[in-house]
């Protein structure tokens, strides 16, 4: 079995939303707390850092070039350099209490962005979607920390997780984006890690980073545990597929809220890892706009 290896000499604060661009063979990610979007090209070892005005919880590449970004106060379109071009909407939550967190695109190129409810006193976060006409709709609520967005290969199911509540949901989805009833797909007991960011492979299996769990896991479409891969850090945050054959798993991790003692014991906290796997991933579609 292959072991995870650091992608390159880098440790971020809160890296999230790894996104592989097959056209340039590049990996993008956001460091939420550093207010940055990063781009790394493994072949040339080039590393670009794009400074942003606010925390970017999630983003997607646009078909027309540049990014769609969910920042603390709202969702914007930017150019390739990260310069703000057009505001799509305000954060539908109170931005003082809830920043954007996990998100991405569905098979039709629509952009989804969920929030994280900071006070943690009730399930105050939500999930919204931006369509090709740049219309934003809140599609789910009753969430504490939106995470784990992924879509089945046939596009019929949307998977999401609520990390603080230790649960993964599955929701039916039609081509027009209409949602069925949200169902509990898998619930995690205390002490085994909390489901964070995720990715789907071509066999319909769901890969999740298990925050506080020192590992990532792969589950069958029926929720059966198929694989576990340990990590040398406590808190992986998200996974994505990439590489020339789409069988490299990129794993972001965090060093947020860790003591100096833990950082001494786990010095790779905040690094990005690569792991060669037998499964093949599904490329993330770019955001399609009219």
TrEMBL record:
InterPro entries: 6-blade_b-propeller_TolB-like, SGL, SMP-30. A divalent metal cation binds at residues 16, 147, 196. Its cofactor is Zn(2+). One of its GO terms (biological process) is L-ascorbic acid biosynthetic process. Substrate binds at residues 99, 101. SUPFAM superfamilies: Calcium-dependent phosphotriesterase. It comes from the Bacteria. Keywords: Metal-binding, Zinc. Binds 1 divalent metal cation per subunit. Belongs to the SMP-30/CGR1 family. This is Gluconolactonase. The lineage of its organism: Bacteria, Pseudomonadati, Pseudomonadota, Gammaproteobacteria, Enterobacterales.
